[in-house]
């Protein structure tokens, strides 16, 4: 009888991932993992079941750890590397995609938009409070009829004397109902522009979207702007046209490249542990060839995805990453993470559909991650354009 290896490898150990990280990156990863173990994992099944999350409290705790806008410089932001930010996203999403979404929308969409395109006044007013988690932000680009085609947006901003008056609505906005500030993109007479909208402004409302089957531990809202009057200074001065919001989306997509792997890793590690303890026909489920085949294939895809993510992180830190390369990472890693979550569920069988285990929760969440910040089809077309030189979007 073949003896069981007394010290089996974890999936990332098999790929020697730790040797590719520096001391700071490993320390940040461990800090975030410890926070998730202590603060998120004991409650996440209940938050998911109840479709409620203590966003304000978590925001303060995440801010205290330096995780909000952590890859940005100045204004109270930690100024870490992009790779370290990606590793933090991985650990957050290993707990739940909703928690990672809170952090990435805050840092890579709302804060990044202000940091990259805002005035000095915008940055001074909002970024320190957002980095500390004292103010939550959201990002209003998607509309009910314009997701993959944001250039078709109907939200409009018109000048009325010295002020801008904004009318329209946005849909599927993470953090919307708990945000103190929204970065809203609207059509003007001079193209698409971004506006900094305090959510207490008259005419602004953010009804929460209920009855979700995915990202239940996350606040998702509609934004309604009804004659919202803003001063001229509310416009982001450095963003004109779609290049502004698309640059923000690229930032968010980078975090997802890493984050999705966290959900996949959590599923795979849970499944390996379960299969080693679950006996069937007199021996552990993990001792069967078909189970090992599934685990081997999932380990391979997880490790390949991690190597791709780290490569993109190094490119980004060197200022050499292209938007098309982010699409490679987002398309591959989310698609494979979802496949891993589903396959893991088959190994746990009926136990896999309960909230006692994270598998179906991760799979449900990843259905949203697969779609937001660019659907798989959009990323396929971006990659297709890169390798053919032909645009299939129009």
Explain this structure.
With 394 residues, the chain is α+β, with helices and mostly antiparallel strands. It has helices at 11-14, 23-40, 44-50, 55-64, 82-95, 97-117, 120-131, 243-277, 289-317, 323-348, 359-371, 376-388, and strands at 73-74, 77-78, 137-140, 156-160, 163-174, 181-188, 191-198, 204-205, 220-231, 279-280, 283-284. The protein has a four-stranded antiparallel beta sheet with strand order 4-5-9-8, with helices on one face.
Task: Outline the secondary-structure elements.
Elements: H1 11-14, H2 23-40, H3 44-50, H4 55-64, E1 73-74, E2 77-78, H5 82-95, H6 97-117, H7 120-131, E3 137-140, E4 156-160, E5 163-174, E6 181-188, E7 191-198, E8 204-205, E9 220-231, H8 243-277, E10 279-280, E11 283-284, H9 289-317, H10 323-348, H11 359-371, H12 376-388
Parallel strand pairs: 3-6
Antiparallel strand pairs: 1-2, 4-5, 5-9, 6-7, 8-9, 10-11
Helix pairs in contact: 2-5, 5-6, 5-8, 5-9, 6-7, 6-8, 8-9, 8-10, 8-11, 9-10, 10-11, 10-12
